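Our consortium's second objective concerns turning raw sequence data into structural hypotheses that experimental partners can test. To show how far this objective has progressed, the report includes one record in full. It was chosen at random from the queue rather than selected for favorable results. The single chain below, 124 residues long, was entered without modification.
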Amino acid sequence: MKNKHIIKDFMMSNKLSFYSPFNININNTILMVRFVEYNNEIKLKILNNVTNYYNQDLLLYKLLFDENTKIIEYAYKPKHNEEYFYIAPNNKIFKKKWNNEDFDIFCYKSKNVYKSVEEAKKFL
């Protein structure tokens, strides 16, 4: 890929890293995605159940160059012993109490912490 530096600059300026999920809003649809690198190419992998609807290359282009496609800043962080919800890799929603454990922090840093089941369902 000859323009790899453009994607890496975009990632750095938005504090994104490979394999760490983040959410974007495209055409009022919220998608959970992550950057992956394989075969010397950078791709945007869609983690929601809508992969048949969105072309990954077009989505990457829109994320980089379409001002209407936005990264969603999601900063909800529960208080100690407060319940939160997260989405597992199998797209099931689970409830957990915040104890500032490694798993809690991982969910928070990957923007996978939700106040309610209804809110989490928006990201499926």
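The partners drew two points from this record. The chain has a mean pLDDT of 85. Residues 36 and 43 are 5 Å apart (CA to CA). Both points have been shared with the crystallography group to help prioritize constructs.
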